[in-house]
Amino acid sequence: MKKVKMLVAAVIATTGFAFAQEQQIPDFKNTPMLIKADGSLSKLEKPTQEVKTKTKGFSYGASQVTFLNILGGSSPVKIDPNGAKFIVKLNDAETDPEGTIYFTKVIVAKDTRELELAQGAAAMASAFGGKGKSVQRDDIKPEFEKVVPAVWKFTPSTPLEPGTEYAVVMPGNVAFCFATTGTAAKKKK
How many domains are contained in the chain? Predict the structure, then answer.
């Protein structure tokens, strides 16, 4: 009888351990979530955002910049830059996450944040042979690991910088924001 009780206890303990290790799946599609140290999921900031356009420069060297204007000067979601892990459920199993999802730094400007989407030469500059500049963002490509069909765990391919605002950009230029803990490195003059 003792052996049976020990066997039952071992089976229960093993079963409980197996269930505890199972990856949680997000409830909603195209909504990336943070995987916390204990394996639970946490939402990223889905801020109010709008697409805007502005002109940079003057005269013939001017260029038109299209950007996401994100309301709020910093994200309330703070994560440790080391070991940041995320998960997302895509629309279907045939969607390639590598071509649709990326991390990027977000530029803080007073009470808003900006994420440049495109930059092109103004009409006069292009008429005189000028060329548009490409957007100068600090994009970080994610590394993906398939969990189940249409669900992917992903991490930044290069380390995130401490004290920096970031966004996970999804199809349609929808940004989910977070900030890293720590102090940002000082810029060289």
Answer: 1
Range of the domain at 51: 25-180
pLDDT in tens, 46-101: 999 998 888 876 666 677 888 889 998 899 999 999 989 999 999 988 889 998 89
**How far is 106 from 72, CA to CA, in rounded Å?**
12
Q: Which ranges of 53-135 does DSSP label H, i.e. alpha helix?
A: 123-127
Asked whether residue 59 is assigned to any structural domain, the reply reads: yes
Q: Which residues of 67-105 are buried (b: 16+ CB within 10 A; e: fewer)?
A: bbbbebeebebebebeebbbbbbbeeeeeebeeebbbbb
Average pLDDT over residues 132-139: 61
The verdict on residue 12 lying in a domain is no
CA distances to 3, 137, 143, 181 from 154, in Å = 44, 20, 5, 19
Closest CA to 172 of 89, 76, 68: 68
Report pTM: 0.76
The answer as to whether 165 is a domain residue is yes
| Domain annotation covers residue 5 | no
